């Protein structure tokens, strides 16, 4: 899973890292659908991405990551190697 995304999720909702398992339902982590949608808006603003509208919000942490991760800006694979070239 995307570590930046998981770290932001943990920080935003104050959830311990050991609870952030891929199959954990967002409900079991204490989030209702409004909190999930607000988090998706936060991600859109912070990373300047557009998350497509869906019929229903993601239900698990993994579903959320699968929805957002492909839209996230790509980080350079090896910035040190790029500087040496």
Give the topology, please.
Layout: H1 3-13, H2 33-47, H3 61-68, H4 79-84
Q: What do these coordinates show?
A:
Helices cover 47% and strands 0% of the residues. By secondary structure, the protein is mainly alpha-helical. The chain has one domain: ACP-like (Non-ribosomal Peptide Synthetase Peptidyl Carrier Protein, Chain A, Orthogonal Bundle), CATH 1.10.1200.10. The model has no long low-confidence stretch (mean pLDDT 84). The protein is built from four helices and no strands.
In short:
This protein is mainly α. The chain has one domain (3-76): ACP-like (Non-ribosomal Peptide Synthetase Peptidyl Carrier Protein, Chain A), CATH 1.10.1200.10.
Kindly list the characteristics that best describe this protein.
85 residues; mainly alpha; Non-ribosomal Peptide Synthetase Peptidyl Carrier Protein, Chain A
